[in-house]
Amino acid sequence: MTAIALVETGGNDFKVGKDGELGRLQTKKIVVDDIYRIYGIKYNHRSCTDYHVSQIIFYLYINYYLTKNKLPFTVENIALLWNGGPDMDGSKQYVKKVKKKYKELVESS
After folding, report:
1. Which CATH number characterizes residue 54's domain?
2. Which of 48-79 are b and which e, b meaning 16 or more Cβ less than 10 Å from the residue's Cβ?
3. Are 108 and 100 in contact (CB under 8 A)?
4. 77 in Cβ contact with 102 (< 8 Å)
5. Which residue range(s) make up the domain with 28?
6. Across the strands, what pairs with 16?
7. Of the N and C termini of the chain, which has fewer Cβ atoms inside 10 Å?
8. What tens-digit pLDDT sequence spans the chain (109 residues)?
9. How far is Cα 89 from Cα 109, in angstroms, rounded to an integer?
10. 8 Å CB contact between 27 and 45
């Protein structure tokens, strides 16, 4: 998740994306709506500028779709899902950036 946040915004909690994505993880409104539909938990999309809220939404979303599709929790699968939605049609370039950032984080710790 940290690698995704750094790729998305460099860690900026108040970043607004070109399509209305919010916060450090650039959470899309459709993701917030999915959390409500799946779990019955109502979040306000504007609250995604709070990193703790966006973390919860991220974990719920990733856990639901990777488990539903019986996919392993790999950096690649998480990045594809976060970038491309439930169809996991995320950009290969995005996955490459996230994997590179993840490797840098692991090597520096």
Report:
1. 1.10.530.10
2. bbbbebbbebbebbbebbbeeeeeeeebbbbb
3. no
4. no
5. 2-95
6. 22
7. C
8. 999 999 999 999 999 999 999 999 999 999 999 999 999 999 999 999 999 999 999 999 999 999 999 999 999 999 999 999 998 888 999 999 999 999 999 999 8
9. 31
10. yes
Nearest to 26 by CA among 1, 46, 9: 9
pTM of the model as a whole: 0.94
Domain count of the chain?
A: 1
Helix or strand holding residue 99 (H, E):
helix 92-108
Residue 57 lies in a domain: yes
Whose tokens are 């919010």? That residue is 22
Q: What is the DSSP string of 34-84?
A: HHHHHH-----GGGGGSHHHHHHHHHHHHHHHHHHTT----HHHHHHHHHH
